[in-house]
Amino acid sequence: MHFHLPKPLHGWREFLGEVGIIVIGVLLALTAEQVVEWVHWRNEAREFRHAVDREIAANLGYYAFDQLQAKCAEQKLNQLWQVLQRSRDGQPVKLAGGVGQPLDPNQSFSVWDSKDPQAFARLPLDVRLQYAKLYELFRATEGIAQAQNETWKKMAVVEEPGPLTLEDRRQLRALIDDAGGLRFALSGNWPDAVQKAASLGIKPEMEPWEKEFARDIPKTMLCQPIVKAG
Q1: Is the pTM of this model over 0.85?
Q2: 73-81: long-range contacts (C-beta < 8 A, 24 or more apart)?
Q3: What pLDDT digit, counting tens, does each position of 144-155 carry?
């Protein structure tokens, strides 16, 4: 018994040519789809980087604003130490003003936290690592700032009328030490953050309200003396 393969109407050569054209067409279609997808994710990566750079610049603006308060914070801690020393005889210390506290602008993490993994993966590895390190630093700074805020609130105990008790003095001394350590940590993070951001071409940018308020920092309670001379 003999089997006969069907022959194309116009011969095998033309048939193979038609198949080749179909294959090439499919490959071109797939390539075009990949090109469209590549362009899409490249644009997504560019838009993400633009947005996250602005967010980082604003967060660096927080550092810049905080550093404008650093001198007043250090001076107030020194004055609180004087209050502590003068209160050892059990007599009330006459205060010239209140304690106050550093203003704590909130940092932003919304762009970073909502990033698309596919868009982020399109960025160069060294850029991704620098972004990650910056946001680790921002998270740490956020925790330090919150701790600082709570510490300064507790130091308002010195504003209460009457002499400080032994327990008050012990608490105040611990709070002064804590506040000094937190201030040191914040000031130490500042140059590190600026250096990391500079490698990505990002500079600090304070929000308009921060720029406006920065001019009035010397007038805040934090910058006013708490102890009277003499």
Answers
A1: no
A2: 73/102, 73/179, 73/183, 73/222, 74/180, 74/183, 75/223, 76/100, 76/222, 76/223, 76/226, 77/176, 77/179, 77/180, 77/183, 79/225, 79/226, 79/227, 80/155, 80/158, 80/172, 80/176, 80/226, 81/176
A3: 999 999 999 999
